[in-house]
Amino acid sequence: MIPSLPRPAWLRAGTSLTVATFLLFLFLPLIVVAVFAFNNAPYPAPPWRGFTLDWFLGNQALGRIGMFQDTELLASIGTSCLVAVWVTVLSVLLGTTNAFLIERCRFPGKQALSFLMLAPLVIPGVILGISILAFASRLADLADDMFGLELDFLRPGLPLVVLGQFSYIATIATLTVSARLKRFDRTLEEAALNLGASQAALFRTILLPYLRPALIGSAAISFLMSFADFNTTLMLVGSDSPLTVMMYGRMREGATPVVNAVSLFLMIASALLALSLLRRGKAAKR
Amino acid sequence: MLILLLAPAILWLLGLIVLPHVDLAVLSLRERIGPREYTPSLAQYRTFFLEPLYWHVFVRTAVMSIISTALTLLVAFPIAWVIAKVARGRGGSLLFLICLIPFWVSETVRTLGWMILLRESGVLPALLVHLGITPEPVELLYHDATLLVGLVYTSMLFMVVPLVSALESLDDSLIEAAYDLGANGFAILRTIIIPHAAPGITAGCIVVFMLTLGNYLTPTLLGGKNSQWFTETIYTQFITRFNWEQGAAFGFLLLALSTLIVWGGLKLAGQRFGEVMQQT
Question: What CATH number has the domain spanning A80-255?
Fold first, then answer.
Protein backbone atom coordinates (compact mmCIF):
# COMPACT_ATOMS: atom_id res chain seq x y z
CA MET A 1 0.00 0.00 0.00
CA ILE A 2 1.01 3.60 -0.34
CA PRO A 3 3.37 5.19 2.23
CA SER A 4 0.72 7.53 3.68
CA LEU A 5 -1.19 4.55 5.04
CA PRO A 6 0.03 2.48 7.98
CA ARG A 7 2.07 -0.44 6.65
CA PRO A 8 2.95 -3.38 8.85
CA ALA A 9 6.63 -4.26 9.11
CA TRP A 10 6.22 -7.51 7.16
CA LEU A 11 4.75 -5.65 4.23
CA ARG A 12 7.64 -3.20 4.13
CA ALA A 13 10.17 -6.00 4.37
CA GLY A 14 8.27 -7.91 1.70
CA THR A 15 8.38 -4.91 -0.62
CA SER A 16 12.14 -4.55 -0.26
CA LEU A 17 12.59 -8.27 -0.80
CA THR A 18 10.43 -8.20 -3.94
CA VAL A 19 12.42 -5.33 -5.39
CA ALA A 20 15.72 -7.00 -4.56
CA THR A 21 14.66 -10.32 -6.13
CA PHE A 22 13.37 -8.53 -9.19
CA LEU A 23 16.63 -6.64 -9.68
CA LEU A 24 18.58 -9.88 -9.30
CA PHE A 25 16.36 -11.50 -11.94
CA LEU A 26 16.90 -8.49 -14.19
CA PHE A 27 20.66 -8.24 -13.92
CA LEU A 28 21.88 -11.77 -13.31
CA PRO A 29 21.98 -12.74 -17.01
CA LEU A 30 23.86 -9.58 -17.92
CA ILE A 31 26.36 -9.94 -15.08
CA VAL A 32 27.05 -13.55 -16.03
CA VAL A 33 27.66 -12.58 -19.65
CA ALA A 34 30.08 -9.86 -18.60
CA VAL A 35 31.96 -12.00 -16.07
CA PHE A 36 32.55 -14.96 -18.39
CA ALA A 37 34.06 -12.71 -21.03
CA PHE A 38 37.16 -12.76 -18.78
CA ASN A 39 37.23 -16.47 -17.94
CA ASN A 40 40.39 -18.31 -18.95
CA ALA A 41 38.53 -21.26 -20.52
CA PRO A 42 37.47 -22.20 -24.04
CA TYR A 43 33.75 -22.10 -23.18
CA PRO A 44 31.71 -19.52 -21.28
CA ALA A 45 30.96 -21.88 -18.38
CA PRO A 46 32.07 -22.42 -14.81
CA PRO A 47 34.39 -23.21 -13.08
CA TRP A 48 36.34 -20.00 -12.94
CA ARG A 49 39.84 -20.65 -14.29
CA GLY A 50 41.37 -17.26 -13.78
CA PHE A 51 41.27 -13.85 -15.39
CA THR A 52 42.28 -13.33 -19.00
CA LEU A 53 41.94 -10.73 -21.69
CA ASP A 54 42.45 -13.34 -24.44
CA TRP A 55 38.85 -13.08 -25.63
CA PHE A 56 39.44 -9.41 -26.39
CA LEU A 57 43.06 -9.24 -27.44
CA GLY A 58 43.92 -12.83 -28.37
CA ASN A 59 45.30 -13.63 -31.81
CA GLN A 60 46.30 -16.62 -33.89
CA ALA A 61 49.64 -16.97 -32.07
CA LEU A 62 47.89 -17.40 -28.71
CA GLY A 63 45.59 -20.03 -30.15
CA ARG A 64 42.60 -17.98 -29.15
CA ILE A 65 41.04 -15.44 -31.43
CA GLY A 66 39.90 -12.40 -29.48
CA MET A 67 37.14 -10.11 -30.72
CA PHE A 68 39.56 -7.54 -32.12
CA GLN A 69 41.15 -10.20 -34.35
CA ASP A 70 37.92 -11.93 -35.31
CA THR A 71 37.47 -10.48 -38.79
CA GLU A 72 34.13 -12.22 -39.33
CA LEU A 73 32.74 -10.70 -36.16
CA LEU A 74 34.15 -7.24 -36.85
CA ALA A 75 32.69 -7.33 -40.35
CA SER A 76 29.28 -8.18 -38.92
CA ILE A 77 29.49 -5.21 -36.54
CA GLY A 78 30.28 -3.03 -39.56
CA THR A 79 27.30 -4.49 -41.40
CA SER A 80 25.00 -3.83 -38.45
CA CYS A 81 26.19 -0.22 -38.22
CA LEU A 82 25.71 0.34 -41.94
CA VAL A 83 22.17 -1.03 -41.83
CA ALA A 84 21.37 0.92 -38.66
CA VAL A 85 22.56 4.22 -40.17
CA TRP A 86 20.35 3.76 -43.21
CA VAL A 87 17.35 2.72 -41.13
CA THR A 88 17.86 5.68 -38.78
CA VAL A 89 18.10 8.26 -41.55
CA LEU A 90 15.07 6.91 -43.39
CA SER A 91 12.97 6.49 -40.25
CA VAL A 92 13.67 9.95 -38.82
CA LEU A 93 12.97 11.62 -42.17
CA LEU A 94 9.71 9.75 -42.66
CA GLY A 95 8.81 10.16 -38.98
CA THR A 96 9.11 13.92 -39.37
CA THR A 97 7.07 14.19 -42.57
CA ASN A 98 4.46 11.87 -41.05
CA ALA A 99 4.28 13.99 -37.89
CA PHE A 100 3.47 17.09 -39.96
CA LEU A 101 1.01 15.09 -42.03
CA ILE A 102 -0.87 13.90 -38.96
CA GLU A 103 -0.69 17.05 -36.87
CA ARG A 104 -1.01 19.76 -39.51
CA CYS A 105 -2.91 18.48 -42.52
CA ARG A 106 -6.53 17.74 -43.11
CA PHE A 107 -7.60 15.33 -45.79
CA PRO A 108 -10.20 12.66 -46.28
CA GLY A 109 -9.12 9.27 -44.98
CA LYS A 110 -6.72 10.71 -42.43
CA GLN A 111 -8.18 8.61 -39.64
CA ALA A 112 -7.69 5.44 -41.65
CA LEU A 113 -4.18 6.43 -42.62
CA SER A 114 -3.04 7.13 -39.08
CA PHE A 115 -4.61 3.86 -38.02
CA LEU A 116 -2.72 2.04 -40.76
CA MET A 117 0.50 3.66 -39.58
CA LEU A 118 0.20 1.75 -36.31
CA ALA A 119 -0.24 -1.57 -38.11
CA PRO A 120 3.49 -2.41 -38.44
CA LEU A 121 3.72 -2.57 -34.65
CA VAL A 122 0.96 -5.18 -34.49
CA ILE A 123 2.36 -7.44 -37.20
CA PRO A 124 4.92 -9.96 -35.92
CA GLY A 125 8.41 -9.23 -37.23
CA VAL A 126 8.74 -12.63 -38.85
CA ILE A 127 5.66 -11.96 -40.98
CA LEU A 128 6.82 -8.48 -41.96
CA GLY A 129 10.03 -10.19 -43.06
CA ILE A 130 8.47 -12.93 -45.17
CA SER A 131 5.90 -10.64 -46.77
CA ILE A 132 8.58 -8.18 -47.88
CA LEU A 133 10.77 -11.07 -49.05
CA ALA A 134 7.96 -12.54 -51.13
CA PHE A 135 6.88 -9.22 -52.58
CA ALA A 136 10.42 -8.15 -53.47
CA SER A 137 11.07 -11.48 -55.16
CA ARG A 138 7.90 -11.14 -57.17
CA LEU A 139 8.95 -7.67 -58.33
CA ALA A 140 12.42 -8.95 -59.19
CA ASP A 141 10.97 -11.89 -61.16
CA LEU A 142 8.62 -9.54 -62.94
CA ALA A 143 11.44 -7.20 -63.94
CA ASP A 144 13.44 -10.17 -65.12
CA ASP A 145 10.60 -11.65 -67.19
CA MET A 146 9.38 -8.43 -68.75
CA PHE A 147 12.53 -6.38 -69.26
CA GLY A 148 15.33 -8.85 -68.69
CA LEU A 149 16.57 -6.73 -65.79
CA GLU A 150 18.48 -8.28 -62.90
CA LEU A 151 17.45 -6.24 -59.87
CA ASP A 152 19.83 -7.62 -57.25
CA PHE A 153 18.74 -5.30 -54.49
CA LEU A 154 15.35 -7.04 -54.43
CA ARG A 155 16.96 -10.38 -53.60
CA PRO A 156 17.76 -11.25 -49.96
CA GLY A 157 20.55 -8.97 -48.79
CA LEU A 158 21.28 -5.75 -46.96
CA PRO A 159 18.96 -3.43 -48.96
CA LEU A 160 16.04 -5.69 -48.09
CA VAL A 161 17.14 -5.86 -44.46
CA VAL A 162 17.13 -2.05 -44.35
CA LEU A 163 13.65 -1.92 -45.88
CA GLY A 164 12.33 -4.62 -43.56
CA GLN A 165 13.55 -2.90 -40.40
CA PHE A 166 12.50 0.51 -41.69
CA SER A 167 8.95 -0.74 -42.30
CA TYR A 168 8.19 -0.89 -38.57
CA ILE A 169 10.83 1.39 -37.02
CA ALA A 170 9.31 4.24 -39.06
CA THR A 171 6.14 3.87 -36.98
CA ILE A 172 8.08 4.36 -33.78
CA ALA A 173 9.83 7.45 -35.15
CA THR A 174 6.46 8.79 -36.30
CA LEU A 175 4.95 8.36 -32.84
CA THR A 176 7.92 10.02 -31.12
CA VAL A 177 8.07 13.07 -33.38
CA SER A 178 4.30 13.64 -33.56
CA ALA A 179 4.01 13.43 -29.77
CA ARG A 180 6.33 16.43 -29.53
CA LEU A 181 4.85 18.33 -32.44
CA LYS A 182 1.41 17.97 -30.86
CA ARG A 183 2.54 19.97 -27.81
CA PHE A 184 3.94 22.83 -29.89
CA ASP A 185 2.52 26.24 -29.10
CA ARG A 186 1.10 27.47 -32.41
CA THR A 187 1.14 31.11 -31.27
CA LEU A 188 4.95 31.08 -31.68
CA GLU A 189 4.43 30.22 -35.30
CA GLU A 190 1.86 32.99 -35.77
CA ALA A 191 4.19 35.48 -34.11
CA ALA A 192 7.03 34.54 -36.45
CA LEU A 193 4.79 34.84 -39.51
CA ASN A 194 3.46 38.20 -38.28
CA LEU A 195 7.02 39.40 -37.96
CA GLY A 196 7.56 38.52 -41.59
CA ALA A 197 9.34 35.19 -41.43
CA SER A 198 9.15 33.03 -44.52
CA GLN A 199 7.94 29.41 -44.21
CA ALA A 200 11.52 28.19 -44.62
CA ALA A 201 12.84 30.54 -41.94
CA LEU A 202 10.00 29.54 -39.66
CA PHE A 203 10.86 25.90 -40.07
CA ARG A 204 14.57 26.43 -39.59
CA THR A 205 14.54 28.83 -36.67
CA ILE A 206 11.49 27.73 -34.69
CA LEU A 207 10.15 24.31 -35.54
CA LEU A 208 13.44 22.52 -36.05
CA PRO A 209 15.02 23.64 -32.76
CA TYR A 210 11.79 22.78 -30.99
CA LEU A 211 11.67 19.30 -32.51
CA ARG A 212 15.36 18.62 -31.94
CA PRO A 213 15.01 16.53 -28.76
CA ALA A 214 12.41 14.34 -30.42
CA LEU A 215 14.54 13.98 -33.55
CA ILE A 216 17.60 12.99 -31.56
CA GLY A 217 15.56 10.68 -29.37
CA SER A 218 13.90 8.93 -32.29
CA ALA A 219 17.26 8.63 -34.06
CA ALA A 220 18.77 6.93 -31.03
CA ILE A 221 15.81 4.58 -30.64
CA SER A 222 15.82 3.76 -34.36
CA PHE A 223 19.52 3.00 -34.31
CA LEU A 224 19.24 0.76 -31.27
CA MET A 225 16.18 -1.08 -32.54
CA SER A 226 17.80 -1.65 -35.90
CA PHE A 227 20.97 -2.89 -34.25
CA ALA A 228 19.00 -5.26 -32.02
CA ASP A 229 16.48 -6.45 -34.59
CA PHE A 230 16.50 -10.16 -35.17
CA ASN A 231 13.15 -11.47 -36.44
CA THR A 232 12.77 -9.35 -39.55
CA THR A 233 16.48 -9.44 -40.35
CA LEU A 234 16.69 -13.23 -40.20
CA MET A 235 14.11 -13.58 -42.98
CA LEU A 236 15.73 -11.05 -45.31
CA VAL A 237 19.42 -11.58 -44.74
CA GLY A 238 21.68 -12.59 -47.60
CA SER A 239 25.35 -13.46 -47.43
CA ASP A 240 26.43 -10.57 -45.14
CA SER A 241 25.20 -11.25 -41.63
CA PRO A 242 24.56 -8.40 -39.21
CA LEU A 243 25.80 -8.91 -35.66
CA THR A 244 22.61 -10.38 -34.15
CA VAL A 245 22.34 -13.05 -36.84
CA MET A 246 26.04 -13.86 -36.54
CA MET A 247 25.81 -14.16 -32.75
CA TYR A 248 22.73 -16.34 -33.02
CA GLY A 249 24.52 -18.71 -35.37
CA ARG A 250 27.48 -18.99 -33.04
CA MET A 251 25.32 -19.46 -29.96
CA ARG A 252 23.60 -22.42 -31.60
CA GLU A 253 26.94 -24.05 -32.31
CA GLY A 254 28.25 -23.39 -28.80
CA ALA A 255 30.22 -20.19 -28.85
CA THR A 256 33.57 -19.30 -27.32
CA PRO A 257 33.68 -16.39 -24.84
CA VAL A 258 34.36 -14.08 -27.80
CA VAL A 259 30.60 -13.69 -27.99
CA ASN A 260 30.62 -12.61 -24.34
CA ALA A 261 33.30 -10.07 -25.12
CA VAL A 262 31.22 -8.56 -27.93
CA SER A 263 28.16 -8.59 -25.69
CA LEU A 264 30.04 -6.67 -23.03
CA PHE A 265 30.94 -4.07 -25.61
CA LEU A 266 27.32 -3.81 -26.69
CA MET A 267 26.25 -3.33 -23.08
CA ILE A 268 28.78 -0.57 -22.51
CA ALA A 269 27.88 1.14 -25.76
CA SER A 270 24.15 1.10 -25.06
CA ALA A 271 24.67 2.24 -21.48
CA LEU A 272 26.72 5.21 -22.74
CA LEU A 273 24.07 6.05 -25.30
CA ALA A 274 21.33 5.84 -22.66
CA LEU A 275 23.27 8.04 -20.26
CA SER A 276 24.03 10.72 -22.84
CA LEU A 277 20.39 10.79 -23.92
CA LEU A 278 19.33 11.14 -20.31
CA ARG A 279 21.72 14.03 -19.75
CA ARG A 280 20.41 15.77 -22.85
CA GLY A 281 16.87 15.22 -21.61
CA LYS A 282 17.69 16.78 -18.26
CA ALA A 283 19.51 19.71 -19.82
CA ALA A 284 16.56 20.33 -22.13
CA LYS A 285 14.13 20.40 -19.22
CA ARG A 286 16.12 23.03 -17.38
CA MET B 1 2.41 20.73 -49.54
CA LEU B 2 -0.08 18.03 -48.63
CA ILE B 3 1.02 15.91 -51.57
CA LEU B 4 4.65 16.25 -50.56
CA LEU B 5 3.90 15.02 -47.06
CA LEU B 6 1.44 12.39 -48.19
CA ALA B 7 3.66 10.79 -50.81
CA PRO B 8 6.32 9.29 -48.51
CA ALA B 9 3.71 7.99 -46.09
CA ILE B 10 1.73 6.32 -48.87
CA LEU B 11 4.89 4.92 -50.43
CA TRP B 12 5.91 3.40 -47.11
CA LEU B 13 2.54 1.94 -46.15
CA LEU B 14 1.64 0.71 -49.62
CA GLY B 15 5.05 -0.53 -50.67
CA LEU B 16 6.21 -2.16 -47.45
CA ILE B 17 3.04 -3.07 -45.61
CA VAL B 18 -0.13 -3.33 -47.72
CA LEU B 19 1.10 -4.73 -51.03
CA PRO B 20 3.50 -7.29 -49.48
CA HIS B 21 0.66 -8.62 -47.34
CA VAL B 22 -1.72 -8.78 -50.29
CA ASP B 23 0.99 -10.64 -52.16
CA LEU B 24 1.47 -12.98 -49.22
CA ALA B 25 -2.28 -13.68 -49.18
CA VAL B 26 -2.24 -14.48 -52.89
CA LEU B 27 0.77 -16.72 -52.36
CA SER B 28 -0.95 -18.63 -49.58
CA LEU B 29 -4.02 -19.27 -51.71
CA ARG B 30 -2.35 -21.11 -54.55
CA GLU B 31 -0.87 -24.51 -55.16
CA ARG B 32 2.04 -25.55 -57.31
CA ILE B 33 1.02 -28.09 -59.94
CA GLY B 34 4.10 -28.00 -62.14
CA PRO B 35 7.26 -26.02 -62.74
CA ARG B 36 6.15 -22.37 -62.64
CA GLU B 37 2.54 -23.43 -62.88
CA TYR B 38 0.09 -22.59 -60.14
CA THR B 39 -3.59 -22.94 -59.50
CA PRO B 40 -5.72 -21.20 -56.88
CA SER B 41 -6.49 -23.54 -54.01
CA LEU B 42 -6.90 -23.86 -50.29
CA ALA B 43 -4.43 -26.76 -50.13
CA GLN B 44 -2.00 -24.92 -47.85
CA TYR B 45 -4.65 -24.27 -45.23
CA ARG B 46 -5.93 -27.83 -45.60
CA THR B 47 -2.45 -29.16 -44.82
CA PHE B 48 -2.43 -27.11 -41.64
CA PHE B 49 -5.62 -28.62 -40.32
CA LEU B 50 -4.94 -32.18 -41.47
CA GLU B 51 -1.37 -32.36 -40.22
CA PRO B 52 -1.51 -32.62 -36.40
CA LEU B 53 2.13 -31.54 -36.09
CA TYR B 54 1.35 -28.08 -37.42
CA TRP B 55 -1.71 -27.23 -35.44
CA HIS B 56 -0.24 -28.73 -32.30
CA VAL B 57 2.65 -26.31 -32.56
CA PHE B 58 0.16 -23.53 -33.31
CA VAL B 59 -2.00 -24.20 -30.28
CA ARG B 60 1.04 -24.69 -28.08
CA THR B 61 2.48 -21.35 -29.17
CA ALA B 62 -0.81 -19.60 -28.45
CA VAL B 63 -1.25 -21.19 -25.01
CA MET B 64 2.35 -20.59 -23.97
CA SER B 65 2.10 -16.96 -25.09
CA ILE B 66 -1.02 -16.44 -23.01
CA ILE B 67 0.59 -18.05 -19.94
CA SER B 68 3.71 -15.99 -20.46
CA THR B 69 1.70 -12.77 -20.75
CA ALA B 70 -0.17 -13.52 -17.52
CA LEU B 71 3.09 -14.29 -15.71
CA THR B 72 4.67 -11.09 -17.00
CA LEU B 73 1.73 -9.12 -15.63
CA LEU B 74 2.04 -10.84 -12.24
CA VAL B 75 5.77 -10.10 -12.01
CA ALA B 76 5.59 -6.57 -13.38
CA PHE B 77 2.64 -5.30 -11.38
CA PRO B 78 4.28 -5.20 -7.91
CA ILE B 79 7.36 -3.54 -9.37
CA ALA B 80 5.31 -0.97 -11.25
CA TRP B 81 3.40 -0.32 -8.04
CA VAL B 82 6.60 0.27 -6.09
CA ILE B 83 7.93 2.58 -8.80
CA ALA B 84 4.75 4.59 -9.14
CA LYS B 85 3.46 4.68 -5.57
CA VAL B 86 5.74 3.40 -2.83
CA ALA B 87 9.18 4.79 -3.65
CA ARG B 88 9.48 8.45 -2.75
CA GLY B 89 11.01 11.28 -4.75
CA ARG B 90 13.98 10.32 -6.84
CA GLY B 91 13.88 6.71 -5.62
CA GLY B 92 11.01 5.86 -7.93
CA SER B 93 12.47 7.33 -11.08
CA LEU B 94 15.85 5.82 -10.30
CA LEU B 95 14.31 2.37 -9.89
CA PHE B 96 12.40 2.88 -13.13
CA LEU B 97 15.60 3.78 -14.92
CA ILE B 98 17.38 0.73 -13.53
CA CYS B 99 14.54 -1.46 -14.76
CA LEU B 100 14.94 -0.07 -18.27
CA ILE B 101 18.69 -0.66 -18.55
CA PRO B 102 18.68 -4.37 -19.51
CA PHE B 103 16.38 -3.63 -22.42
CA TRP B 104 18.85 -1.33 -24.06
CA VAL B 105 20.90 -4.46 -24.66
CA SER B 106 19.80 -6.72 -27.48
CA GLU B 107 17.77 -9.85 -26.91
CA THR B 108 20.64 -11.98 -28.18
CA VAL B 109 22.85 -10.89 -25.29
CA ARG B 110 20.14 -11.45 -22.70
CA THR B 111 19.43 -14.92 -24.05
CA LEU B 112 23.13 -15.73 -23.97
CA GLY B 113 23.07 -14.84 -20.28
CA TRP B 114 20.25 -17.28 -19.60
CA MET B 115 22.04 -20.00 -21.56
CA ILE B 116 25.22 -19.57 -19.51
CA LEU B 117 23.18 -19.59 -16.31
CA LEU B 118 20.98 -22.57 -16.99
CA ARG B 119 22.66 -25.11 -19.26
CA GLU B 120 23.98 -28.35 -17.82
CA SER B 121 27.54 -27.03 -17.61
CA GLY B 122 26.23 -23.63 -16.52
CA VAL B 123 26.29 -21.53 -13.39
CA LEU B 124 23.08 -22.56 -11.61
CA PRO B 125 23.50 -26.35 -12.01
CA ALA B 126 27.07 -25.99 -10.71
CA LEU B 127 25.77 -23.98 -7.78
CA LEU B 128 23.13 -26.60 -7.00
CA VAL B 129 25.79 -29.31 -6.92
CA HIS B 130 28.01 -27.12 -4.77
CA LEU B 131 25.22 -26.59 -2.27
CA GLY B 132 24.52 -30.30 -2.20
CA ILE B 133 20.97 -29.97 -3.52
CA THR B 134 21.55 -32.18 -6.55
CA PRO B 135 24.30 -34.84 -6.79
CA GLU B 136 24.87 -34.25 -10.53
CA PRO B 137 24.50 -31.10 -12.63
CA VAL B 138 20.96 -31.02 -14.03
CA GLU B 139 19.99 -29.64 -17.41
CA LEU B 140 17.84 -26.60 -16.71
CA LEU B 141 17.68 -25.50 -20.33
CA TYR B 142 15.18 -26.81 -22.90
CA HIS B 143 12.19 -27.07 -20.55
CA ASP B 144 8.90 -25.26 -20.92
CA ALA B 145 9.50 -23.52 -17.59
CA THR B 146 12.86 -22.23 -18.83
CA LEU B 147 11.23 -20.97 -21.97
CA LEU B 148 8.64 -19.13 -19.88
CA VAL B 149 11.36 -17.51 -17.74
CA GLY B 150 13.10 -16.33 -20.90
CA LEU B 151 9.90 -15.03 -22.48
CA VAL B 152 8.80 -13.19 -19.32
CA TYR B 153 12.25 -11.66 -19.01
CA THR B 154 12.34 -10.52 -22.61
CA SER B 155 9.00 -8.76 -22.57
CA MET B 156 9.12 -7.35 -19.02
CA LEU B 157 9.81 -3.78 -20.12
CA PHE B 158 6.72 -3.59 -22.32
CA MET B 159 4.57 -4.43 -19.31
CA VAL B 160 6.32 -2.23 -16.73
CA VAL B 161 6.20 1.00 -18.78
CA PRO B 162 2.42 1.16 -19.44
CA LEU B 163 1.67 -0.06 -15.91
CA VAL B 164 3.79 2.67 -14.34
CA SER B 165 2.19 5.39 -16.42
CA ALA B 166 -1.29 4.07 -15.61
CA LEU B 167 -0.59 3.81 -11.88
CA GLU B 168 1.08 7.20 -11.64
CA SER B 169 -2.13 8.92 -12.69
CA LEU B 170 -4.03 7.29 -9.82
CA ASP B 171 -4.79 9.82 -7.09
CA ASP B 172 -3.45 8.65 -3.72
CA SER B 173 -6.36 10.24 -1.88
CA LEU B 174 -8.75 7.72 -3.45
CA ILE B 175 -6.82 4.92 -1.79
CA GLU B 176 -6.68 6.81 1.49
CA ALA B 177 -10.43 7.44 1.36
CA ALA B 178 -11.13 3.77 0.71
CA TYR B 179 -8.88 2.84 3.60
CA ASP B 180 -10.60 5.30 5.92
CA LEU B 181 -13.94 3.82 4.93
CA GLY B 182 -12.68 0.44 6.06
CA ALA B 183 -11.66 -1.29 2.84
CA ASN B 184 -8.92 -3.85 3.16
CA GLY B 185 -5.99 -4.16 0.79
CA PHE B 186 -7.67 -6.68 -1.45
CA ALA B 187 -10.84 -4.63 -1.80
CA ILE B 188 -8.80 -1.53 -2.66
CA LEU B 189 -6.91 -3.48 -5.30
CA ARG B 190 -10.07 -4.92 -6.82
CA THR B 191 -12.36 -1.90 -6.77
CA ILE B 192 -9.96 1.03 -7.19
CA ILE B 193 -6.53 0.15 -8.46
CA ILE B 194 -7.34 -2.42 -11.11
CA PRO B 195 -10.24 -0.49 -12.67
CA HIS B 196 -8.06 2.60 -12.80
CA ALA B 197 -5.06 0.78 -14.25
CA ALA B 198 -7.16 -1.24 -16.74
CA PRO B 199 -6.03 0.73 -19.83
CA GLY B 200 -2.40 0.24 -18.83
CA ILE B 201 -2.92 -3.43 -18.10
CA THR B 202 -4.61 -3.99 -21.45
CA ALA B 203 -1.93 -2.07 -23.32
CA GLY B 204 0.85 -4.00 -21.61
CA CYS B 205 -0.80 -7.38 -22.11
CA ILE B 206 -1.48 -6.76 -25.79
CA VAL B 207 2.04 -5.63 -26.60
CA VAL B 208 3.62 -8.42 -24.57
CA PHE B 209 1.37 -11.04 -26.13
CA MET B 210 2.17 -9.93 -29.66
CA LEU B 211 5.88 -9.84 -29.01
CA THR B 212 5.84 -13.26 -27.37
CA LEU B 213 3.80 -14.83 -30.14
CA GLY B 214 6.14 -13.45 -32.77
CA ASN B 215 9.33 -14.23 -30.87
CA TYR B 216 11.87 -16.44 -32.58
CA LEU B 217 15.16 -16.13 -30.74
CA THR B 218 14.12 -17.12 -27.22
CA PRO B 219 12.09 -20.23 -28.17
CA THR B 220 14.78 -21.55 -30.51
CA LEU B 221 17.62 -21.05 -28.06
CA LEU B 222 15.97 -21.77 -24.70
CA GLY B 223 13.22 -24.18 -25.77
CA GLY B 224 14.03 -27.75 -26.64
CA LYS B 225 13.95 -29.63 -29.90
CA ASN B 226 10.48 -31.00 -29.17
CA SER B 227 9.00 -27.66 -28.22
CA GLN B 228 8.76 -25.80 -31.49
CA TRP B 229 7.42 -22.29 -31.74
CA PHE B 230 5.16 -21.41 -34.66
CA THR B 231 7.57 -18.79 -36.00
CA GLU B 232 10.13 -21.58 -36.37
CA THR B 233 7.66 -23.53 -38.48
CA ILE B 234 7.23 -20.50 -40.72
CA TYR B 235 10.98 -20.08 -40.99
CA THR B 236 11.46 -23.74 -41.88
CA GLN B 237 8.86 -23.61 -44.64
CA PHE B 238 10.06 -20.33 -46.05
CA ILE B 239 13.83 -20.47 -45.79
CA THR B 240 14.83 -24.11 -45.32
CA ARG B 241 12.27 -25.92 -47.47
CA PHE B 242 11.61 -23.03 -49.83
CA ASN B 243 7.92 -23.89 -49.73
CA TRP B 244 6.70 -20.30 -49.87
CA GLU B 245 3.05 -21.12 -50.41
CA GLN B 246 2.92 -23.15 -47.19
CA GLY B 247 4.99 -20.60 -45.29
CA ALA B 248 2.71 -17.78 -46.41
CA ALA B 249 -0.36 -19.68 -45.22
CA PHE B 250 1.29 -20.26 -41.84
CA GLY B 251 2.21 -16.59 -41.67
CA PHE B 252 -1.40 -15.62 -42.22
CA LEU B 253 -2.61 -18.03 -39.59
CA LEU B 254 -0.22 -16.49 -37.07
CA LEU B 255 -1.31 -13.00 -38.07
CA ALA B 256 -4.96 -14.03 -37.74
CA LEU B 257 -4.36 -15.49 -34.29
CA SER B 258 -2.51 -12.40 -33.13
CA THR B 259 -5.20 -10.07 -34.48
CA LEU B 260 -8.00 -12.19 -33.03
CA ILE B 261 -6.56 -12.28 -29.53
CA VAL B 262 -5.70 -8.60 -29.55
CA TRP B 263 -9.21 -7.79 -30.73
CA GLY B 264 -10.71 -10.11 -28.14
CA GLY B 265 -8.60 -8.59 -25.39
CA LEU B 266 -9.73 -5.10 -26.36
CA LYS B 267 -13.38 -6.18 -26.42
CA LEU B 268 -12.99 -7.85 -23.05
CA ALA B 269 -11.48 -4.71 -21.54
CA GLY B 270 -13.93 -2.47 -23.41
CA GLN B 271 -11.21 -0.37 -25.01
CA ARG B 272 -10.22 1.00 -28.38
CA PHE B 273 -7.00 0.26 -30.18
CA GLY B 274 -6.02 3.89 -30.65
CA GLU B 275 -6.39 4.72 -26.97
CA VAL B 276 -4.37 1.69 -25.96
CA MET B 277 -1.58 2.63 -28.34
CA GLN B 278 -1.44 6.08 -26.77
CA GLN B 279 -0.59 4.40 -23.48
CA THR B 280 2.52 2.69 -24.75
Answer: 1.10.3720.10
